[in-house]
């Protein structure tokens, strides 16, 4: 059976059973490692954005309009948890990522990032609270991107705990361009804070006049994917380019990643941003996509269900409707293959069972689970 036929037949069968929209994910996708089965774990999530596995195997999933829910391995979706802060749920804004404190098992602390409304517009913020069965309790805001500005685009943001226990928060430049080169604001930066929101004393711009001390790296455009590389502990991120020019960067302390001075992409208004697209004083991406995939979430794969994928990065694509597999080779990277998911992919996470989980960015969004076709091992 051809891939196209199998794809269409599976989609038609699923659609007939439960009346899903035509854009539902395929039942099977091809890969260099053989066919992959795509299961729908849960559905009915409105533009799910971020997910995190709890130690008991359940998942926390955010919905961009401002809800945080618990999803069980067999697909039960909880009522929205109480205690989530009010969000600026317009355009790209809303409730964004979710992450667990490294000591979650003992302190139950959950972190969320979101677009926070204010009198002058909105900016990205991070709040944390203690998870109960029905709520986040004792919620406090531990970081606010400065300043708040008008507009609904480029909030970032992913939350990534580093091996040293500090928290990286990836941000966007709020579609304002030049502030990404100005260290007196947080726009277009990655910030590094302690789990309490304090500034670690070894941050690169601590004590520098006119620079905000939370900043770890700058010159970013809009980072919606980030993860720590197992083994090296390095932070990697993927950011949206302007029109083409999506970048995979290995992030170094104090690094300037060039936006908006250089880019491999083009302005939406036409014309290249710069020629040449690199400068010796600015960091170049480890890999870039000339034709935009519109990158979302990413993960380093470490499991045993896809042995060929170990050490690779899996990057979700929104416009690309794909999961891109990228091999990391030291400080360089190369694309290996793209999985044709048939839906906008908002986040990619490895589950405790070694399966790959993804969120589809739809009004009736889903938690998807990818395993090798024929792999009938239980979820855990
Ligand atoms: Ca760049």
Protein described:
With 380 residues, the chain is mainly beta. Helix content is 5%, strand content 39%. The protein has helices at residues 3-18, 104-107, and strands at residues 28-29, 36-45, 48-53, 59-63, 67-71, 95-100, 109-118, 121-131, 136-144, 159-161, 167-170, 189-193, 215-218, 223-228, 235-239, 246-251, 287-289, 295-300, 313-317, 322-329, 332-340, 345-350, 356-360, 365-372. The strands form 6 sheets. The chain has a 5-stranded antiparallel sheet, with helices on one face. The protein has a 4-stranded antiparallel sheet with strand order 6-7-8-9, with no helix packed on it. Calcium ion (CA) is lined by residues 247, 257-259, 285.
Outline type: globular
Tell me roughly what share of residues is in helical segments.
Answer: under 10%
Q: Give the class-level CATH name.
A: Mainly Beta
CATH homology superfamily name: TolB, C-terminal domain
Largest sheet: 5 strands, antiparallel
Radius of gyration: 20 Å
Q: Please count the helical segments.
A: 2
Structural class, from secondary structure content? mainly beta
Report, as a whole number of angstroms, the end-to-end distance: 31 Å
Number of strands: 24
> What's the arrangement of strands in the largest beta sheet?
1-2-24-23-22
> Based on the structure given, which CATH architecture is correct?
6 Propeller
Low-pLDDT segments, ≥5 res: 1-22
The fraction of residues assigned to DSSP E strands is 35-45%
Total number of domains: 1
Oligomer: single chain
């Amino acid at each position: 059976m051809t891939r196209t036929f199998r794809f269409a037949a599976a989609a038609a069968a699923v659609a007939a059973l439960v009346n899903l929209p035509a854009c539902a994910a395929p039942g099977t996708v091809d890969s260099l490692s053989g066919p992959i089965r795509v299961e729908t774990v849960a559905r009915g999530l409105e533009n799910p954005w971020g997910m995190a596995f709890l130690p008991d195997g359940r998942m926390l999933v955010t919905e961009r309009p401002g809800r945080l829910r618990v999803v069980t391995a067999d697909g039960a979706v909880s009522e929205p948890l109480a205690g989530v802060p009010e969000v600026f749920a317009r355009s790209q804004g809303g409730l964004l990522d979710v992450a667990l404190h490294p000591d979650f098992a003992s302190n139950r602390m959950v972190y969320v990032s979101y677009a926070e409304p204010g009198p002058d517009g909105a900016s990205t913020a991070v709040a944390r609270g203690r998870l109960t069965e029905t709520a986040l309790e004792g919620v406090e805001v531990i970081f606010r991107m400065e300043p708040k500005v008008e507009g609904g685009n480029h909030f970032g943001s992913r939350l990534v705990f580093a091996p040293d226990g500090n928290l990286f928060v990836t941000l966007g430049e709020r579609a304002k361009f030049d502030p990404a080169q100005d260290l007196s604001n947080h726009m277009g930066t990655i910030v590094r804070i302690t789990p309490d929101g304090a500034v670690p004393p070894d941050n690169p711009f601590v004590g520098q006049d006119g620079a905000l001390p939370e900043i770890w790296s700058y010159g970013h455009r809009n980072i919606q994917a980030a993860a720590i590389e197992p083994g090296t502990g390095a932070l990697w991120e993927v950011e949206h380019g302007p029109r083409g020019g999506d970048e995979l960067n290995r992030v170094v302390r104090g690094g300037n990643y060039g936006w908006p001075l250089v880019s491999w992409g083009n302005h939406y208004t036409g014309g290249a941003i710069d020629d040449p697209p690199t400068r010796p004083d600015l960091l170049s991406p480890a890999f870039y996509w000339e034709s935009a995939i519109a990158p979302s979430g990413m993960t380093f794969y470490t499991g045993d269900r896809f042995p060929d994928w170990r050490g690779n990065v899996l990057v979700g694509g929104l416009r690309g409707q794909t999961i891109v597999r990228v091999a990391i080779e030291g400080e360089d990277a190369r694309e290996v293959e793209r999985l044709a998911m048939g839906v906008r992919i908002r986040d990619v996470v490895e589950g405790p069972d070694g399966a790959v989980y993804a969120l589809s960015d739809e009004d009736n969004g889903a938690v998807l689970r990818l395993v090798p076709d024929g792999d009938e091992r239980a979820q855990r």
